[in-house]
């Protein structure tokens, strides 16, 4: 039996072993809770939501079939009993999950909770019952809860009535902002949210002391038709007080008088008092207080504050100030306090607040060096990264990063003809990130409103391989904008200059001749592109379980500006293309779309669907997409039955050339990519998670290339060319990062026309791939 078949069989047997005899430690007069079902005749009381109110749920199961954690518990308990019977000492530490034994009292509690849940949803006349089947299988209980909603109570008329006329007028004008409307169910969750909406709205319009606890409902169903309720939201008359002198506050609007920034406040010290000598600086009507020196320019801090003198108090401006200053990434401690100063100052008879913003910066500079070992297809190497970081380089919380990388790799496949049997990589990179929108002619108010950052980057890399030397110089400028549920990325300009000063003559003769596809990957080329992408993330119905939809999409265009300039200037082409610095520049358009949907069944089990599509099209000055911009199949985030860059394009079957091991990777790329993934994730124990997945996809070329036979995309055949893989995964979730190990198998290989379905003659080397990665694949 091939080794991978043997291992897979062992895993299957182990799963069945841990899953068998789940009632091993269930007494004769007891029943294991095998299944709980909730049936409801109303749509807004779902089965999944209702299960939150049930006290007894079955033991967790993998794919709803194998109770592995229960099996671990039973196996461990049996082992303990054997050791105790043999007179050996044993530390009885519970492992796995104990069996859930049916308890009639817990069922009664669950019925009461479900009835209250239906009542909260507006079904005051709901009927809740349960039935228990213990005859279907020995020592197992199948529990069914039935919810019959009957006619719900609905809101007939809704009014907000507070204690003074100005506030009532303000709320009535803005009534369409709130949730309660005529005809909706009398839902207590919606009612409570309404109190929060009203309170937040008033606090964002100057009512500093307002709180949702001041509001209560008066419901009357005696004057309406059956099951209809007149509802009023009222205010307690004597709730608002200042504890300082117990004087009652009415409906009073507050304005901000002064804003104070304590820019190097240490929360561990005694605090800022009159005995501590501090310096004061005023900028844009904001007071800056500091000791010794001010590390961040007041202009920058003023740009990141939404608390401005002489403006009406708004709670959201405090929240926005917190968010904006934290986004600067320079302050480890931040606290904003507001103080009522109307007893001290009665200017114009208004109510005034002072705002005090205390902050403490983190260490501005840091330096790190790390050493790592590498293993690429059996070639071992060593690499070192040296990094320097300054979080406030220009006194405006600008983040400057400087990184150097040196890597050496011993190559086992180099021919004896060559002197160099190694690969050397050198990289230098400098990045400047600015936590605001850096663009001329934008006034300060517009800059303050935009949650944006700007980034400039320059890098240079040198790579020496046995057959060539490659240099890449890069320069780029991009912007990032944040909106609720959206992140926008604009690449204003990105320039890559790739040049190869030396290529081995023998390698060039054999692999880079006229008409060779990979010849374009070893030619000097120049890319000047612009691009836009976004990420949309939206929690859905089961927010408490983490149900979420994520969409990523983007497009980039390269070469159009240069092509237009050359056309307008009537510059002649050289060798069939326009050139800059004697190098042909690339011209293409590229678009990507990525979709993922996370569907949780409960807190321990979830199903994730992922789909991705990408298309890149060369035109004008280019006959082929640059190698670094093309798509590849296989790997830890694609079809995991294949190693990275070993799938496709189409039916093309790559081969490993000992003379140039990486050469075929150049051919196994394409201009179109499709990935479809379905993954079932389950929490096991401790930090460990398991996964079962099915992957499908491939890459294709748009044009026909001789070096990639069978690689071109055709609408009539591409479905038969979609590769299929499956596998298992083990993950360790350490909260801050997740370590992932996936073991993928080929199920359908379009590159094997004689035996596409890979269930016979399976070999470890050709039909399985192992992947180690950080983070989830999607």
Envelope shape: globular
Computed structural class: alpha+beta
Low-confidence stretches: 240-248, 270-274, 414-420, 658-663
Named at the architecture level, the CATH assignment of the largest domain is Beta Barrel
Tell me briefly what this model is.
It contains 13 helices and 31 strands.
Supply the key terms:
13 helices, 17% helix, Ubiquitin-like (UB roll), 4 domains, 778 residues, 16-stranded antiparallel beta sheet, five-stranded mixed beta sheet, alpha+beta
Describe the protein in words:
With 778 residues, this protein is an alpha+beta fold. The chain folds into 4 domains: 3-148, Ubiquitin-like (UB roll) (Roll), CATH 3.10.20; 154-248, Roll (Ubiquitin-like (UB roll)); 254-361, Ubiquitin-like (UB roll) (Roll), CATH 3.10.20; 482-774, membrane protein fhac: a member of the omp85/tpsb transporter family (Porin), CATH 2.40.160.50. Helices cover 17% and strands 38% of the residues. The chain is built from 13 helices and 31 strands. The strands form 6 sheets. The chain has a 16-stranded antiparallel sheet. A hairpin with an 8-residue loop joins β21 and β22. The longest helix has 18 residues, at 68-85. It is globular, with a radius of gyration of 33 Å. Mean pLDDT is 84; it is low at 240-248, 270-274, 414-420 and 658-663.
SSE order and pairing:
Layout: H1 3-19, E1 32-40, H2 47-50, H3 68-85, H4 104-120, E2 127-133, E3 140-148, E4 154-161, H5 165-173, H6 188-203, E5 215-220, E6 228-235, E7 241-242, E8 247-248, E9 254-262, E10 279-283, E11 286-290, H7 298-303, H8 315-327, E12 331-340, E13 351-361, E14 365-376, E15 379-390, E16 399-410, E17 422-434, H9 444-449, E18 452-464, E19 468-483, E20 486-503, H10 505-511, E21 525-539, E22 548-558, H11 560-568, E23 579-580, E24 583-584, E25 588-600, E26 605-618, H12 663-667, E27 672-683, E28 688-700, E29 723-733, E30 738-748, H13 764-767, E31 768-774
Parallel strand pairs: 1-3, 4-6, 9-11, 9-13
Antiparallel strand pairs: 2-3, 5-6, 7-8, 10-11, 12-13, 14-15, 15-16, 16-17, 17-18, 18-19, 19-20, 20-21, 21-22, 22-25, 23-24, 25-26, 26-27, 27-28, 28-29, 29-30, 30-31
